[in-house]
Task: inverse folding
């Protein structure tokens, strides 16, 4: 087993994005020197690079973290103005301007994100529009800051570094290429660190992310700050290149175009920013220089119409963008055509083709003949009550789970079993008390229950379709040292070391349930049975002490159910206490030490698994009274 | 003398506050209607307000129609524009997430505004008010049009509240908003309802456009800013609450024009944001909103 | 009145219903019984065009395919969904009023008739849907369906999550309804369903495994076993 595990390398070590970036930069230089002639073309090239940087920042905010923000354009402008202000005094070196822009952007985006933390989506989007308005207003009025009137600033110093002044577009090209290169490398750092899977986890299923103990708020704020900083840095470069600024440089229209560039390029990868901005800049140019005239109006006046229509058409027909299309065409064998967040976002999610990748012939886990004795109560829930409006879904239920035992919970549809689990794991508000290993745990806080070592699986497997299996398992790890953005950039060697350790554990867990071979495949492509095993792997990797399983055998055939039971027994032998909610007689009887019965939210019977089915009360509960 | 000036100043500010507040509320009623009916927030509403104003300008200014038929024409035409937006941005994307539709409405907004730019040019135009002139109160001059705006806003809000609360149509719309599938199971014509909702929202935008335009001048972007103000009023009042948006609008107007005129004049347009952020921080659903409102916010 | 032949419903690769056939004649009450996930709800959803399906579904001799969900409702095929789905922000009376949309000129229950049938709702006319108890919601859901002037009533697990006393009251009311309207009732609670039904089909894993009259199906042990796919458990 060790051998197999060691053979598969963690994603952090695979692929060569840095090489791709290097090649891209070299390609840029070659193309630039060979193909662009004349000032106009040079300027256009630089425009592309600048926008690519801005859209790259937006990719983090929207593509990765899923936040609907129109503020990129505003912060882009803000960065320019701040940089101009900071360098007004000629004794200040010019790069101080960029630093000032970055600092202001970090601060403003932090404050904004913090204030808007309790809102999502639409409010957030409108808030970013508001941010735009505020920034424009302040800049127009604060003449002291802009040293000019009405937001017009001119005479901005050109960029200079190490004594060399970058006056021409050709000069600036070098700076911009460097900036974009750095940006792409940073993006690669983040893609290949825990940040990516955590951000996607928070984006796709925030509630589940909470129960996994992920710092959702921190992730969202940091990604927003990161994206805004990219925009501000780009703004600073823009200001020093253009030598003047006006508030028209960053209108709401620009914000919309940034959206368009991101979607056009594809939200699934950082290269989408590069592709999208290239398309936008060059098609704008084509429109400007075209001599087609419609009804006495040059076609360039129709630009917003064309882009607006393009946006709508993209939404309808090609939502994965150009990079997504490319991936689908070229890498057929690999992952789903488009990130499933995007397809769900766009409502196109189709059921992935199920492959029977569960290897049922592999020997199951070895179960020791000697069972560990049943010990003290590990989980004690007393008087749990859950009300929804006028309905009492769970009514004064007492449940206790002892060390080393497997407790079964049965009951007809609508009896409140899932709700009881929700109450215990803090997903719904409930009355009553909960003690775990003798310590009182407050009901209603998912994070505290998770931290106490209680893990829960769901009736429909809750996994992140877009993330690979191993990423899904990695999300359950309790070792969360150095998973933040800053660490991923600055403390990379340490992060890699921790990742390797985490990855090892995750791979072992996957191997134990027989899924090591599909570790890299997106979870969305697994068959139903394999998904259950994936859940199990997460439980194993998550180091749980208590596991609550909600209908784990649902949808599994006989062989798969047997395998599941064997795995659960192996877990019990390792000292994990299990509570299993299910319907299948065989499964419950063979697995559980004790069974309790729920009906209409109340506990109506308790006993050993064989006798319980004879109990008149149980039959009544399922079939109604005669 | 000083006292008289102070009073007339105050009354000017107050009248500005009330009418500007009404303007934002009136602008917001349209997209609130689509939101309550379909959960979609149409960012095209601003462009529709502009279009409504320009349509009236085109018939009355360029073709010398009398003012009332010009207004009516604009309002009726905007109904069909609203229906068209439902067909283009909503129906093909039905079943996708709300964000997609919202982005599509942005696309529509761009298209409409650019068409206006092309056909009418970007320079500001004027539209005749419904009633010329105004009256004086304690030295402050109040144009009749502003009074009409306030009146129309209140009447329209009352009409919408009645529509949603007491008519079969309103009941059906509310049913569809909370559970579309079950509404279908009881024969509610969900497709037709969204068409009507979008159409009505278009008309409301047209109404807002023709009434508001005469107060200032119109240019291709004037509707967008008003719509933004409407968003803020709706957020403050509680998204989904019709009465709330009127209160929100008045509060914003009051803060901006009364308090702002006395206190921090240069930045008076910032004050509403302070107010909104303050309210949202304490109560994310606004003043009158409730968590049962359709759609995640 | 309702004839279902060889119904197939799939969700992606999962076959929820496989080759199911059943029929409901005028004046009959037919029950569809089975455990969780057997395909009962999928069957009802297919009948009212909420799910795509293969096979034939005929109402009054005409195929319902192509009618659409609203069309089925207007034709008198009224479905009370699992979990009741009372409109949460509408009051009890408003819920009933929306139900009347499907009635379309047919004579059905009037609002007063519904309040007579479920006296508890009299005092709850203005209470909003979300604030009702499970039993009250079920009464509203059924009342709403009755106001829709059904020619055939489809009930999905009406006893779900209800206390026995409430179930009794609901089924008593249904006993009155059956005099004028044929019913297809889906249930897990076989005993109660069989007090109402003339005959029934037990469906497990998408397929029919047992059919019979109410009396035949009254042997509950056998049903439990076929539910759980087990042989008779010996004590």
Result:
């Amino acid at each position: 087993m060790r051998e197999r595990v060691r053979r598969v390398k963690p994603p952090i070590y695979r692929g060569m994005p840095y090489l791709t970036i290097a090649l891209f930069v070299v390609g840029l230089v070659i193309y630039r020197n060979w193909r662009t002639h004349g000032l106009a073309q040079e300027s256009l090239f630089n425009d592309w690079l600048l926008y690519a940087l801005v859209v790259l920042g937006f990719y983090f905010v929207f593509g990765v973290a899923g936040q609907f923000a129109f503020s990129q354009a505003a912060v882009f402008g803000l960065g320019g103005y701040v940089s101009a202000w900071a360098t007004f005094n000629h004794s200040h070196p010019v790069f101080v301007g960029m630093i000032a822009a970055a600092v202001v952007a970090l601060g403003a985006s932090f404050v904004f994100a913090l204030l808007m933390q309790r809102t999502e989506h639409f409010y957030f989007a409108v808030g970013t529009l508001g941010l735009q308005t505020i920034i424009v207003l302040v800049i127009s009025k604060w003449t002291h800051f802009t040293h000019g009137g009405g937001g017009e600033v001119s005479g901005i110093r050109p960029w200079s570094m190490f004594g060399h002044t970058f006056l021409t577009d050709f000069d600036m090209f070098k700076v911009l290429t460097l900036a974009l290169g750095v940006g792409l490398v940073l993006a690669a750092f983040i893609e290949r660190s825990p940040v990516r899977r955590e951000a996607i986890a928070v984006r796709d299923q925030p509630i589940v992310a909470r129960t996994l103990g992920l710092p959702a708020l921190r992730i969202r704020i940091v990604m927003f700050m990161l994206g805004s900083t990219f925009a501000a840095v780009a703004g600073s470069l823009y200001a020093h290149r253009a030598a003047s600024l006006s508030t028209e440089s960053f209108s709401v229209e620009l914000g919309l175009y940034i959206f368009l560039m991101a979607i056009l390029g594809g939200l699934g990868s950082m290269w989408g920013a590069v592709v999208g901005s290239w398309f936008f800049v060059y098609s704008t140019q084509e429109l400007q220089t075209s001599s087609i005239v419609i009804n006495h109006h040059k076609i360039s006046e129709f630009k917003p119409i064309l882009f607006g229509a393009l946006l709508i058409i993209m939404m309808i027909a090609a939502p994965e963008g150009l990079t997504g299309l490319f991936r689908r065409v070229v890498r057929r064998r690999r992952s789903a055509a488009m990130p499933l967040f995007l397809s769900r976002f766009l409502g196109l999610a189709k059921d992935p083709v199920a492959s029977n990748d569960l290897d049922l012939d592999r020997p199951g886990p070895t179960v020791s003949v000697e069972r560990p004795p049943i010990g003290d109560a590990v989980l004690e829930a007393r008087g749990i009550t859950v009300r929804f409006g006028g309905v009492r879904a769970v009514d004064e239920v007492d449940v206790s789970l002892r060390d080393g035992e497997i407790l079964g919970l049965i009951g007809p549809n609508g009896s409140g079993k899932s709700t009881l689990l929700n109450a215990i794991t803090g997903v719904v508000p409930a009355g009553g008390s909960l003690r775990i290993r003798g310590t009182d745990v407050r009901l209603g806080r998912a994070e505290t229950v998770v931290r106490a070592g209680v893990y829960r699986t769901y009736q429909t497997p809750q996994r992140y379709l877009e993330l690979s299996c191993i990423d899904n398992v990695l999300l359950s790890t309790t070792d969360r040292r150095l998973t933040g953005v800053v660490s991923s950039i600055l403390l990379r060697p340490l992060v890699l070391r921790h990742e390797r350790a985490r990855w090892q554990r995750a791979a072992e867990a996957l191997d134990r349930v027989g899924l090591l071979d599909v570790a890299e495949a997106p979870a969305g492509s697994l068959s139903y049975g394999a998904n259950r095993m994936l859940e199990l792997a997460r439980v194993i990797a998550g180091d749980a002490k208590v596991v609550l399983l909600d209908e784990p055998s649902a949808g599994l055939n006989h062989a798969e159910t047997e395998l599941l039971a064997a795995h659960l027994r192996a877990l019990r032998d390792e000292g994990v206490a299990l509570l299993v909610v299910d319907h299948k007689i065989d499964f419950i009887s063979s697995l559980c030490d004790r069974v309790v019965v729920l009906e209409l939210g109340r506990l109506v019977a308790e006993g050993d698994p064989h006798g319980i089915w004879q109990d008149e009360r149980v039959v009544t509960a399922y079939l109604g009274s005669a | 003398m000083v006292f008289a000036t102070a009073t007339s100043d105050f009354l000017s500010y107050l009248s500005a506050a009330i009418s500007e507040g009404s303007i934002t509320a009136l602008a917001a009623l349209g997209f609130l209607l689509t939101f309550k009916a379909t959960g979609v927030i149409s960012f095209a509403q601003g462009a529709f307000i502009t279009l409504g104003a320009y349509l009236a300008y085109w018939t009355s200014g360029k073709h010398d129609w009398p003012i009332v038929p010009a207004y009516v024409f604009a309002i009726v035409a905007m109904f069909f524009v609203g229906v068209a937006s439902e067909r283009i941005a909503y129906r093909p994307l039905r079943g996708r997430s709300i964000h997609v539709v919202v982005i599509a409405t942005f696309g529509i907004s761009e298209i409409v505004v650019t068409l206006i730019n092309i056909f009418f040019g970007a320079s500001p135009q004027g539209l005749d008010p419904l009633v010329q002139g105004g009256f004086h109160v304690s030295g402050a001059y109040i144009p009749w049009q502003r009074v009409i705006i306030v009146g129309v806003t209140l009447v329209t809000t009352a009409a919408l509240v009645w529509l949603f609360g007491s008519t079969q149509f309103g009941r059906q719309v509310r049913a569809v908003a909370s559970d579309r599938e079950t509404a279908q199971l009881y024969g509610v014509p969900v497709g037709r309802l969204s068409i009507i909702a979008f159409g009505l929202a278009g008309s409301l935008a047209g109404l807002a456009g023709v009434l508001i335009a005469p107060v200032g001048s119109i240019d291709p972007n004037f509707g967008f800013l008003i719509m933004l103000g409407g968003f803020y009023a709706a957020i403050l009042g509680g998204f989904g609450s019709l009465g709330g948006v009127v209160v929100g609008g008045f509060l914003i107007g009051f803060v901006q024009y009364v308090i702002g005129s006395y206190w921090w004049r240069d930045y008076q347009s910032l004050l509403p944001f302070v107010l909104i952020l303050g309210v949202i921080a304490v109560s994310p659903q606004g003043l009158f909103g409730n968590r049962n409102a359709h759609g995640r916010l | 009145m309702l004839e279902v032949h060889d119904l197939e419903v799939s969700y992606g690769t999962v076959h929820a219903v496989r080759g199911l056939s059943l029929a409901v004649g005028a004046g009959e009450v037919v029950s569809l019984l089975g455990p969780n996930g057997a395909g009962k709800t999928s069957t009802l959803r297919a009948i009212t065009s909420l799910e795509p399906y293969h096979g034939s579904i005929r109402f009054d001799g005409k195929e319902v395919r192509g009618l659409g969900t609203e069309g089925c409702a207007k034709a008198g095929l009224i479905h009370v969904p699992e979990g009741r789905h009372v409109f949460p922000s509408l009051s009890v009376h408003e819920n009933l009023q929306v139900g009347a949309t499907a009635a379309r000129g047919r004579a059905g229950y009037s609002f007063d008739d519904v309040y007579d049938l479920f006296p508890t709702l009299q005092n709850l006319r203005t209470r909003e849907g979300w604030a009702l108890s499970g039993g009250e919601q079920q009464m509203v859901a059924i009342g709403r369906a009755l106001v829709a002037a059904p020619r055939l009533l489809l009930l999905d697990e009406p006893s779900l999550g209800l206390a026995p006393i409430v179930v009794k009251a609901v089924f008593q009311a249904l006993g009155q309804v059956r005099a004028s309207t044929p019913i297809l009732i889906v249930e897990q609670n076989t005993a109660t369903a069989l007090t109402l039904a003339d005959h029934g089909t037990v469906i497990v894993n998408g397929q029919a495994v047992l059919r019979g009259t109410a009396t035949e199906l009254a042997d509950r042990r056998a049903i439990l076993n076929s539910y759980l796919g087990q042989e008779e458990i010996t004590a």
Observations:
- The interface with chain C takes residues 350-351, 353-354, 389-391, 393, 412-416, 528, 554-555, 583-586, 600, 613-614, 619, 622-626 of chain A (CB under 8 Å).
- Residues 329 and 337 of chain A are 8 Å apart (CA to CA).
